[in-house]
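Sample 1 of the test manifest.
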Amino acid sequence: MLIGAAMMPHGNPVLKPEDEGTRKLAEALKEIGEEFSKAEAYVIISPHNIRMSEALGVIMAENLISWLGFGEVQLPGEYKTEKELAREIYQRAKANGLPVVDINFASLSGEYSRFPLTWGELIPLHFLEKRPVVLLTPARKVSRATLVEFGEVVGEVLEEYDKKVAFIASADHAHAHGNGPYGYAPEAKEYDELVMRIIQENRLEKLLEIPDELISKALPDSYWQLLVLYGVLKKVPMKVKLAEYACPSYFGMGAALFVRE
Amino acid sequence: MLIGAAMMPHGNPVLKPEDEGTRKLAEALKEIGEEFSKAEAYVIISPHNIRMSEALGVIMAENLISWLGFGEVQLPGEYKTEKELAREIYQRAKANGLPVVDINFASLSGEYSRFPLTWGELIPLHFLEKRPVVLLTPARKVSRATLVEFGEVVGEVLEEYDKKVAFIASADHAHAHGNGPYGYAPEAKEYDELVMRIIQENRLEKLLEIPDELISKALPDSYWQLLVLYGVLKKVPMKVKLAEYACPSYFGMGAALFVRE
């Protein structure tokens, strides 16, 4: 059963907040962690793990191991994959005709069946109690409808699963807020405000109206995972329990918690 | 241009040979290394990296980094991906309707675009001078014809490429020779002898006649990569320069070098 869903950022600043906004954001992440302590497994979709242009990924490797941090920040972490749930998501998505691949590594099972984690997973997981995980990866060159449909499949599978599961979209927003490697574009603020309003109002269907041009200028790492989150929430409608946003450097970060009505 | 092709094992024993047969095998690997010192890039297909059931993989990540050894043996290693060649293989395979995905990791480019290597790549690469690499991954649940066709596409792309390239199939043979984790099956010896004979006689088309049952009982890590090698050699016929085999533990290892006529 799906007990909740969240959007969680993966930027280093939430680990050591240096301003009031980021502190509030980190507090929100802790609240998500408390809410999700009821879960027996997490499903997390991350933009900084496997990146395939046109295929959605379900990581099947048994052991998920910290490998790559951003900057000098490397969180440790070892997680088990909730394999039965991963297999069910893969098979159901495939049966629905979605462009999905199952990804194992090195060996099909046992200690050598391992997969590397990055800041994209480790930072959200840092705020959550340790549980088995299913790691999913989005794709940017599939249609918006495909991403939503994948979310619907995930929502359906999680709802039917016999353990309590929480869904997490790892997502940072626009990267073109200036003073960073991606320069400045006014669309960054526009995108972030729009997305946070859509989330606060719990009208994620509005994500589908965001023009490609706004997305490509704002440079978010969130849009594709949010469409999957929308699909999940289409299947299992929930209410917004909290939403926070901060932009302490060149990229926007937001947190949101959805719980059952 | 394709300057040569090889089958290379990835078992730890070739790193520290303890018997005459394995010493000869390691010598053959050094000879492959000398022959391939003429190459400007390598394309290697490995069974111990990404494992997808039904999709062939082309690793697009810029940096390939040692991550996972077998047992206590961890070779270091950092390689650059020959990105242009990787992209061409992916695009050509896709244009040919093959089930192929492009795999990047963490970031699309730059220092965070990294991918982990295992013993499946590091041991063959250990015998070769350092060059940029394209890493490919096979799949076991696609048809034999698909694997051969993928090899043909790879052969065609390598032949047209403006740098000198060598193709390497990382492959260990049957794992059911006994005294190991996979037990004993007489089919292990049968498979290994058959495959080495096929290679020595340079009649790789005979691979297609090997029954599924023999493969499933022998438990090789070679069959699928050898079909891709066959496809490469179909496009660019070569002669066998050397072939060696040893079985110092529970799995068979073979080396073969193909050079242009």
